[in-house]
Design goal:
GO cellular component, one term: membrane
Shape: globular
Pfam families: Yip1 (PF04893)
Distance between the termini: 40 Å
Keywords: Membrane, Transmembrane, Transmembrane helix
Number of strands: 11
Strand content: 15-25%
Largest sheet: 9 strands, antiparallel
Number of domains: 2
Protein name: Yip1 domain-containing protein
Radius of gyration: 22 Å
Membrane topology: Multi-pass membrane protein
């Protein structure tokens, strides 16, 4: 194995993708060589980092404290997750190749595997952060940024490797990404089923693709068949929107997020009846995968609100896709809603027992403005978000940071 070549290719695909994709497309390869020279190594990063991180540092759970998971259980999860990741890469290559003619591209499994394997590089690299579980929210933010960068890399890669026309590449990319999400849910479910650790480390996921009530492999197969039919229908809808898709393609490109000082200036000096405390602003990441965030606490007596703005300039494609998600869940304990208002994605979450809530608004497919607190009602959280100059954020949606 030529590790010098692997490291050089890593740098090239992350920092010079426009020049690197044509090289990848033209070089001779086979499914076996792509696995032994690339996939086997990078796919091991996340499960191995998780194994070491949870084994050494353990897991911290609110109100319970920190505890460690047995190495036997962790090793079982490592092996299962690793093997399933190798499988999903292969399945995605097959699906991507099979879909190619529908979008004016070539049906070539080797080239499709190149597109999938190299496009997913940012997510695999960011997986190294799982060595330190205490990073928590930072790992989540950078993983989201990496996923968005991967979507953009896939958009370019499908054009370079399979010859997808640019005017149809957006729809092609969207369908492949949605299928990958469905398969990812299946992988998480399967990993949890085999190792048992999933119940402790991830929340239950309610997917929009309804799985049949039957259990076992037959039920899973039927569910995937239904998912495939939905993806086919999605593809037809997306192809019907080609005129708009071509114009949106540029929005997939990552943008350098605003500097900490620029972010801090976007927070209001006060909220109605509430005094602002210290402002905390940061910008960080790996290479082009940068995220900026500014947040401040506003309070008076028992009423406390934390208001934050996150600039996910490298994550715009993912935020645009979030706009496709709709959710409306309500119970005696509270509610959770995701919906569209005035062309923007809104999330509301409320827990009645603790009177704790969150209100999040996505602006310009780039900025996430979130207010959360314990004590105020949802109206106060909405008022806090509205106190941010949202019109100014909208004008900054295509402006790179300093």
């Amino acid at each position: 194995m030529n590790f010098a070549h692997l490291i050089a290719r890593l740098r090239a695909i992350l920092f010079s993708p426009r020049a690197t994709w044509p090289e990848i497309a033209s070089e001779p390869a086979s499914i076996g060589s792509l696995y032994t020279g690339w996939v086997l190594w990078l796919a091991a990063i996340t499960p191995l980092a998780t194994f070491i991180g949870l084994g050494i540092f353990g897991m911290s759970v609110p109100f319970i404290g920190s505890f460690r998971i047995g190495f036997g259980t962790l090793f079982g999860q490592l092996v299962t997750t690793y093997l399933l990741t190798l499988l999903i890469v292969f399945l995605m290559a097959l699906i991507t190749a099979a879909l190619a003619p529908s979008f004016g591209a070539r049906n070539d499994r080797v080239q499709a595997l190149k597109a999938i394997a190299y496009a997913w590089t940012p997510v695999w690299i960011v997986g190294v952060l799982r060595l330190i579980p205490l990073l928590g929210a930072l790992t989540v933010l950078l993983t989201l940024a990496a996923a968005a960068y991967s979507v953009w890399l896939l958009w370019r890669g499908l054009q370079a490797t399979l010859g997808a026309p640019q005017e149809r590449a957006v729809a092609y990319t969207a369908v492949v990404v949605v299928i990958a999400i469905v398969l990812g849910v299946v992988i998480g479910w399967t990993s949890a089923m085999f190792t048992g650790i999933g119940a402790m480390t991830r929340a239950n996921i309610e997917a929009s693709v309804n799985m049949p009530a039957s259990s076992g492999i037959s039920g899973l197969a039927a569910g995937m068949q239904q998912a495939a039919r939905q993806m086919q229908a999605t593809g037809k809808v997306l192809q019907g929107e080609q005129a708009g898709a071509a114009g949106q393609a540029a929005n997939l490109a990552p943008i350098k997020p605003l500097a900490p000082g620029q972010m801090s200036a976007l927070l209001p000096a006060s909220l109605p009846g509430l005094v602002r405390g210290n402002v905390d602003s940061t910008r960080g990441g790996i290479g082009a995968l940068q995220v900026s965030e500014a947040k401040a606490d506003y309070g008076s007596g028992a009423q406390q609100i934390r208001l934050g703005i996150t600039d996910m300039g490298a994550n715009r494609a993912m935020l645009a896709m979030i706009g496709m998600v709709q959710q409306d869940q309500e119970s005696a304990s509270g509610y959770h809603k995701v919906f569209q208002r005035d062309g923007r994605t809104v999330q509301e979450q409320w827990t009645a027992a603790t009177r704790a809530g969150e209100y999040t608004l996505i602006v310009g497919d780039r900025f996430m403005v979130q207010a959360k607190g314990q004590g105020p009602d949802m109206a106060a959280l909405k008022q806090a978000v509205d106190a941010v100059d949202l019109a100014r954020l909208q004008t900054l949606k295509d402006t790179p940071g300093e």
